[in-house]
Design a protein that fits this description.
The structure is a single chain. The protein is α/β, with parallel strands linked by helices and about 160 residues long. It has helices spanning about 25-30, 35-40, 50-60, 75-85, 105-115, 130-135, 150-160; strands at about 10, 65-70, 90-95, 120-125, 140-145. It has 7 helices and 5 strands, in the order βαααβαβαβαβα. A 5-stranded parallel β-sheet has the order 3-2-1-4-5, covered by helices on one side. Helix 4 links the parallel strand 2 and strand 3 (about 90-95). Helix 5 packs parallel to helix 6 (about 130-135). The longest helix has 13 residues, at about 105-115.
Length: about 160
């Protein structure tokens, strides 16, 4: 049962929703993919104005939670980046370092767990498959379509379970 006395949750993805990853896509274009380079470059991601505005607006009525496919080993860089952008504090749910399941599965699992005790007002994500599955499960979704889709990142999210 959800706790209606607490603010609802607004759940935000990071990569290509709040953080522009275009400058680090090059690490995913070669074979083998350079995952260490890709994640090491994340602290230099510029913020995406549309995503930042939406998270700040959502924080007026909701508790903000971050849900990312980034591996747990990136936690400190991620927390530092969120703070540097002046984004609201909130729990950050990350993928276990060795979890290679598709993002749509790991994120939906986390959403369902959160929804057991809290109302989820909205999920904001750029991954179409995550958005489709979340909508089918009954969640309200805002598709973050403010960056150009990356085939390399889509493959990483869906087939390689990396982000």
């Amino acid at each position: 049962m959800t706790d209606s006395s607490r603010a609802p949750l607004a759940v935000f993805d990071l990569d290509n929703t709040l953080a522009d990853t275009a400058h680090r896509q090059r690490f995913l274009e070669d074979k083998p993919r350079d995952w260490d380079g890709f994640f090491a470059a994340a602290p230099q991601d510029p913020p995406i104005p549309q995503g930042v505005a939406l998270v700040l607006e959502s924080a007026e009525e909701c508790e903000v939670v971050y849900l990312t496919g980034r591996p747990e080993r990136c936690r400190q860089d991620t927390l530092d980046w969120l703070a540097a952008q002046g984004l609201p504090e909130g729990r950050v749910h990350m993928r276990r370092d060795n979890d290679r399941r598709p993002a749509r599965r790991t994120k939906l699992e986390t959403l369902r767990r959160l929804a057991r005790t809290r109302e989820i007002r909205v999920l904001v994500d750029d991954d179409e498959l995550v958005c489709e599955d979340a909508e089918r499960a009954g969640f309200t979704v805002v598709r973050a379509r403010w960056t150009a889709p990356s085939a390399a990142l889509r493959t990483a999210q869906e087939r390689e379970g990396r982000t």
